[in-house]
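A.,

Following up on our hallway conversation. Structure tokens first:
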């Protein structure tokens, strides 16, 4: 870069100001991109809240599928080992929520609002919340076993034992 004396003030020769502006623009763009890239990480939680040393096998009746970009959720009313809907202390069906990958990722596995419409009976393996409330994360590379419509498993069994069942997401339950 060359400088030209113009009285007591040094001014940069033509062309070099553009180089400085371009360098500044690149640094600002990189800084902005880094800042924006950090935003999703700040808004996203880790899976540390789930106890990944425990796997709970649940069977239930879907009452809601929530397709969200970050994590799709499956909401079930649990079926007990006796083959009947479990009830909470108020006599209402016992709800349990399951967090999964984002809606686009689970849709590629056949897990959609259509395949998980209300009334669908499924079995799923979850890592429960460490603090004990009725919510968990779908465990690793396990499938969701979907029973044929209105055909629950035998008491004490899961949907993967029902003739005509479907495995969604992975080849094994």
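Then the amino acids I'd put at each of the 173 positions:
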């Amino acid at each position: 870069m060359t400088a030209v004396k113009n009285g007591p003030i040094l001014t940069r020769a033509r062309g070099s100001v553009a180089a400085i502006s371009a360098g500044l623009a690149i640094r600002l763009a990189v800084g902005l991109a880094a800042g924006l890239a950090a935003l999703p990480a700040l808004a996203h939680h880790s899976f540390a809240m789930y106890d990944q040393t425990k796997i709970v096998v649940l069977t239930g009746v879907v009452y809601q599928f929530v397709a969200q970009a970050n994590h799709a959720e499956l909401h079930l009313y649990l079926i007990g080992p006796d083959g009947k809907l479990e009830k909470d202390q108020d006599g209402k069906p016992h709800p349990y929520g399951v967090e999964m990958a984002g809606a686009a990722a689970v849709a590629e596995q056949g897990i959609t609002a259509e395949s998980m419409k209300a009334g669908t009976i499924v079995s799923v393996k979850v890592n429960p919340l460490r603090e004990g409330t009725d919510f968990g994360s779908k465990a690793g590379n396990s499938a969701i076993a979907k029973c044929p419509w209105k055909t629950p498993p035998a008491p004490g069994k899961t949907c993967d034992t029902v003739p005509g069942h479907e495995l969604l997401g992975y080849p094994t339950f």
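The chain has two domains: 3-43, 49-168. Curious whether your intuition agrees with the design.

B.
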